[in-house]
């Protein structure tokens, strides 16, 4: 089978799936958007990759305009047309699309239909829910019309897809309520690529160069926006003075956070660029404690993949997020850390202080997370699920 897997973000586990499908004898091209600013996975073809595996990045003509709704939409349309060209060149039997903005997905899905390719909508987020919260606040009159259009568009594309793969069962009642046939839904929870995240000692040459110091290391890694409550990271630095808060992120909010730390005289909070994927395991292994933040409005609609990498490395997690979020349930059900409702910053600082003073507790909680990851992130079983659904629709 000729399979085109497109992950707009370029995250690690999606490209691992592409490699697994290619290992099974399929011809697989993996695509991602080069301009979209987020941590990337292993997106280079190596000699050890299966013969049928290839990478085909798509790119905007200009840097990604994240802050401008209109400019961003135009660029998302542009990427949709680039993906349509890729469909024409590659002529896939099936397309799997993950993380594509709705304007990108609309053009991509239409191109797949023209070529007769089956289309699998890998549903990472219900984008129209977020649009419905954010856009009407920015554009009080027109915003409601825009939100209604994107709600219509998203659920229409889900209904028109040959199969839908939500990442959490929480999405199923939402999409079936909007007319998606339950018979063409397969829930596959996200994972982290274990073999690409090998464990390293806490102290390595890399950490001695990049995370020097004897104190506890608290790490936040990933996208950082105002919705992620960057103020919590300031409170952690202030409330756990014996620890160092390392923030690995890029963009305007990360720059503002770094400036605020300097203005407050916080020498124990530093902001660093995202690390290359091949250095990520050493950075993560150098942490003693991880932080994850999800905004209150996200509810069940956002499941940050950083949590899965944290679990794979086996370090305790403190999370500020809605308690009904899938990631929150994973952490709590497996005793892999502590989760408090968004806004409970003081409580999270107390939990961080508790963990900072108890190495045995950190080790036990981290082992719980690692145990969950080893039991759940089996790429062969995950590959079976995707391959079986592809066979069923072709």
Count of discrete alpha- or pi-helical segments spanning 4 or more residues: 15
Q: What is the N-to-C succession of helices and strands?
A: EHEEHEHEHHEHHEHEHEHEHEHEHHH
Tell me the radius of gyration.
21 Å
| CATH topology heading of the largest domain | Rossmann fold
| Helical residues, percent | 40-55%
- Low-pLDDT segments: none
- Spatial order of the strands in the main sheet? 3-2-1-4-5-6
Structural class call reads alpha/beta
Net shape: globular
CATH architecture of the largest domain: 3-Layer(aba) Sandwich
What is the CATH top level name of the largest domain? Alpha Beta
Task: Give the N-to-C terminal Cα separation.
Answer: 9 Å
Beta-strand residue percentage: 5-15%
Strand tally is 12
| Main β sheet profile | 6 strands, parallel
Instruction: Work out the count of structural domains.
Output: 2
Mean pLDDT equals: 92
Let me know the CATH homologous superfamily of the largest domain.
Answer: Glycogen Phosphorylase B
């Amino acid at each position: 089978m000729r399979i085109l897997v497109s992950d707009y973000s370029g995250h690690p586990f999606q490209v691992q799936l592409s490699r697994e499908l290619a290992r099974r004898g399929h011809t697989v091209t993996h695509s991602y958007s080069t301009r979209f600013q987020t941590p990337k996975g292993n997106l280079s073809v190596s000699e050890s990759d299966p013969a049928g595996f290839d990478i085909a990045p798509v790119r905007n003509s200009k840097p990604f305009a994240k802050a401008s709704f209109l400019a961003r939409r135009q660029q998302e349309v542009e990427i949709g047309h680039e993906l349509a060209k890729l469909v024409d060149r590659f002529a896939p039997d099936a397309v799997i699309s993950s993380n594509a903005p709705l304007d990108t997905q609309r053009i991509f899905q239409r191109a797949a239909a023209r070529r007769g390719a089956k289309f699998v909508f890998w549903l990472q987020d219900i984008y129209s829910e977020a649009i419905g919260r954010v856009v009407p606040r920015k554009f009080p009159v027109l915003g409601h019309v825009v939100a209604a259009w994107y709600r219509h568009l998203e659920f229409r594309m889900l209904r028109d897809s040959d199969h839908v793969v939500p990442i959490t069962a929480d999405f199923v009642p939402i999409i079936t309520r909007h007319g998606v046939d339950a018979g063409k839904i397969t829930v596959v929870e996200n994972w982290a690529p274990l073999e690409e995240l090998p464990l390293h000692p806490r102290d390595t040459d890399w950490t001695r160069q990049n995370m020097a110091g004897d104190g506890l290391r608290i790490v936040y890694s990933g996208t950082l926006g105002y919705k992620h409550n960057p103020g919590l990271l300031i409170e952690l630095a202030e409330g756990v003075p014996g620890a160092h808060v390392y923030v690995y992120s890029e963009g305007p909010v990360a720059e503002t956070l770094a400036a605020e730390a300097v203005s407050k005289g916080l020498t124990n909070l530093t902001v660093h660029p995202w690390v290359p994927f091949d250095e990520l395991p050493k950075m993560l292994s150098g942490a003693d404690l991880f932080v994850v933040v999800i905004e209150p409005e996200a509810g069940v609609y956002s499941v940050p993949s950083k949590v899965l990498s944290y679990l794979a490395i086996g370090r305790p997690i403190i999370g500020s997020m809605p308690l009904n979020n899938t990631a929150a349930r994973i952490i709590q059900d497996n005793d892999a850390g502590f989760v408090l409702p968004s806004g409970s910053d003081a409580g999270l600082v107390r939990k961080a202080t508790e963990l900072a003073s108890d190495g045995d507790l950190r080790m036990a909680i981290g082992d719980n997370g690692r145990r969950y990851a080893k039991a759940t992130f089996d790429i062969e079983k995950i590959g079976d699920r995707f391959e079986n659904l592809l066979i069923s629709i072709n």
